[in-house]
Here is the input.
Amino acid sequence: MTVQVLLVDDDAAVRDALAQTLELADYAPITAASFVVAKDHITRDFDGVILSDIRMPGRDGFYLLAHTRKVDADLPVILLTGEGDIPMAVQAMREGAFGFLEKPCAPSDLLSVLERALKSRALVLENRRLRKLVESGDPASRMLFGTSDLADGLRARVRLVAPLETEVLVTGAPGTGISKVAEVIHLSSLRSKAAFVKRAASDLRPKALAEAIKEAEGGSLFLDEITHLPAASQLALLEALEAGSAARLIAGSNRDLAAAVEAGALNADLYYRIEVMPVRIPSVGERPEDIPVLFRHYVAQAAEQAGLTPPEVGPDHMAALMAQDWPGNARSLMSAAMRFVLGMPEDAAQAADQGLAEQMARVERSLLIAALGRQNGHASAAAQALQLPRKTFYDKLKRYGIRAEDYRR
Here is the structure.
């Protein structure tokens, strides 16, 4: 939740006392002695709220309120006065103040109003962010979540391959959302208005494959786990691609395709045809810094599905989530979010019961893996990024049983 509070009061003693109250409550006060000093902080992007005295020399609190309403009518302003003037309070509320408090006010009363105002502001900004994504027409931004470098890289890769007419191979560990990324590629392409057809490769005999290709004509055909496509269908698919299929193929797999070729499970010619434009989805373990973003998104989604108000995710719970390995990746996070919404957050509870040393070790292991993932498995570069001596870095890899080569792409 946002914690910034723009505190405006010309009385230095009162201003300092209020700032101390806010700091003790873990808020981040930005102090100003006048409207002139405060006005540069009053922007549409300000992610906090405003707490202002009414009676100040020059531009008073009502002027500040009117200015703020012009800049952003949804930016909460809470007004303070020592006058005990009820008509003034009525006027403040009529002119759009979020709240009105009489000085001196009890800390509990002040913090209660601030908490409501900050929650309101956070909700407004989140709704604006989501609306901006929808209006931007960029499916990669709307549907692929995360703020890490790896998440940015995935979105960039999707935007790169989407406009091309070549086949695409989407790979990733189980639960990373291969079919979702395939759909984003389709929605980001020139074929977005046509059909996006999804099929499990294991179910497609040659006749069923031909029907799926026809159904996806002009659009995209996603084949989930391409290595499970029957041998005869693999040949039929290769022939269709070489003949100029009217459907764009997006193949998905969580297996080592080169190994599948060696084992005879995947036709070599088909493999070399589809691996020209690969898109690899990083695992959650490679980007633990994305767990808060992903989990909060899944909590909101689960709450909407269940018809419930999304519960707030506390810092202790989030720390416990980040201490876990998540071998099931995004799908496991989704399940954990649903259990959290329904009041059954046993995963985090188990992690929290492990003790500080074990939790810290799991977080450290996740950060090592994330660094290797960002540096394409190059241990020296990962050690430098984490500002660790090479020997220390290698010792940690050995301690946690991590092999750098497993993260080379």
